[in-house]
Specification:
heterodimer, A: 171 residues, 5-stranded parallel sheet, globular, B: 4-stranded parallel sheet, 36% helix
Chain lengths: 171, 321
């Protein structure tokens, strides 16, 4: 198996794409990170892009595995609640996540986002794309495509100094 | 062997499948419910246009209230609706129970209508336990008050409120004033506070309204309200439950207020940042002065709001297990 991608390299690649967008674009966009890993990425991106605020989206309420797992499925959000400190109505929103895999989380995030209003445009930015899609979802901005064994989960960690690190866990 | 309420509410994996009592419910279970409730508070907040989530879509919740209730029934209904469940409120006064059908026959008929969750309030102690023991495993019961025994969701929303304002249960003194002997709310609170490590629970009231076994539950008894309120962080007042009393058991309204009513002067004896709670319905001028009930320390309406989130948490936890 290929070695794990360097999360910092992926972050810099993603940041550059969003800096280009910010430079090219006359209208502003808002970042909304998916709890919990995506929220860390959105926080750092907002800082590096000089954006005054960023949102957090907790997808728990719209997950499609409640019948199977019950509220245990909520754990991955680590208690972060949805907080969107900007008007969703008519906004250009970029959802941010650490890993894009099946696309199911993104589907849930879109539903959660639309509970707060009707955005003009929604795009997706991710650090790593595992490209095993089960839904018609793709990212406009991505750090890189990565290969990880099917029985492994790719997990983002953040060091005390803010640096990102990818780890794998057994399913 | 017959299972106790606290055994019956857990499945074979030790997960909560009914909520019947807070007696014997572990700290982990209680904190899990409170943590889950915290996420659900966001569903009711004003910036969320759609105050509804799809978790219980397609599930049927039956509200079975054999005793009157406004607050509890309404908040359960609202909680179920915010979870997208279909809710049926049975009007017991005009239902077949009034025609002589037994409780369990009523339940069987509702199970045949694909009930998923029963919310049960009954004047008899153990009614919800009886229903839970009778049901197939995929159907869940939430006790919304059984006689003078337990009112677990009220106890949990009170814990949520105390945690919200005071954070750490191991650092607070809690005083409960008034009709404790008839209060299932007080009992559920005492069990939960004890489990969560609250170092000092006080019961304040006339002897005729305090249960005999309070000492055994680790509760300190005060027959003088001024002494009992000294330096507490939380003051919980209770309604006098005349409907459960014999005549002459307690002094009437004015007389009770004089001895046991929570007045602004008495509240000053508690810590300056103490919160005042009441499970409702509240009788102004009997157990609580209007000035206190409407004052800055009262969190009585916050309890009601948190109650919706706590009930959403309980329903989504049991229905998912």
């Amino acid at each position: 198996m290929a070695s794990l991608p360097l999360a910092e390299d992926l972050y810099q690649a993603l940041l550059k794409q969003l800096q280009n967008l910010k430079g090219a674009q006359s209208t502003s966009f808002q970042l909304a990170g998916l709890a919990s890993g995506g929220a860390w990425v959105a926080e750092r991106l907002a800082k590096d892009l000089g954006l005054p605020a960023y949102g957090v989206i907790n997808v728990s309420f719209h997950r499609d595995d409640y019948a199977e797992k019950g509220v245990k499925a909520f754990n991955s959000a680590e208690g972060m609640s949805t907080k969107l400190p900007f008007d969703v109505e008519g906004a250009h929103i970029i959802l941010v996540d650490d890993v894009l895999d099946t696309g199911r989380t993104v589907r849930a995030a879109l539903n959660e986002l639309f509970d707060y209003g009707r955005p003009a445009k929604v795009e997706l930015a991710v650090l790593a794309d595992r490209h095993r899609r089960q839904l018609p979802v793709d990212a406009t901005f991505k750090g890189a495509k990565v290969n990880v064994a099917d029985d492994q989960i790719l997990v983002l960690d953040q060091a005390d100094d803010g640096q990102f690190l990818f780890m794998t866990e057994n399913k | 062997m017959t299972k106790t309420a606290s055994q019956l509410q857990l499945n074979e994996q030790g997960e909560l499948t009914h909520l019947l009592t807070l007696e014997g419910l572990s700290k982990e279970h209680i904190f899990h419910i409170l943590d889950t409730a915290k996420q659900f508070v966001a569903v009711g907040e004003s910036d969320r246009e759609v105050k509804k989530v799809p978790l219980l879509r397609g599930k049927n919740v039956f509200n079975l209230f054999f005793e009157n209730s406004t607050r509890t029934r309404t908040t359960f209904e609202l909680a179920a609706k915010r979870l997208s469940a279909d809710v049926v409120n049975l009007d017991i006064q005009t239902s077949s129970t009034a025609k002589g059908e037994t409780l369990l026959d009523t339940i069987d008929n509702l199970v045949a209508m694909q009930a998923d969750i029963f919310v049960v309030r009954h004047k008899t102690t153990g009614a919800a336990v009886e229903v839970a023991a009778h049901l197939p495993p995929h159907v869940h019961v939430i006790n919304a008050g059984d006689g003078t025994n337990q009112h677990p969701t009220q106890g949990l929303l009170d814990m949520y409120t105390m945690r919200h304002f005071k954070q750490d249960f191991t650092k607070i003194k809690v005083a409960i004033i008034g009709d404790i002997v008839h209060s299932r709310v007080a009992k559920s609170n005492i069990h939960a506070l004890t489990t969560l490590g609250c170092p000092e629970i006080r019961a304040i009231g006339p002897e005729s309204l305090l249960p005999k076994d309070l000492n055994m539950m680790g509760v300190k008894i005060y027959n003088n309200i001024e002494e009992g309120l000294k330096d507490v962080d939380v003051v919980m007042t209770l309604r006098i439950q005349k409907e459960r009393m014999e005549a002459g058991q307690v002094p009437e309204g004015d007389e009770f207020f004089k001895q046991w009513g929570l007045t602004p002067e008495r509240l000053k004896l508690a810590k300056p940042d103490a919160i005042v709670m009441h499970p409702g319905p509240m009788n102004r001028g009997v157990e609580i002065d209007s000035e206190v009930a409407d004052g800055p320390q009262a969190v009585i309406l916050k309890q009601v709001t948190f109650g919706i989130a706590v009930r959403m948490a309980v329903m989504s936890i049991v229905a998912g297990n």
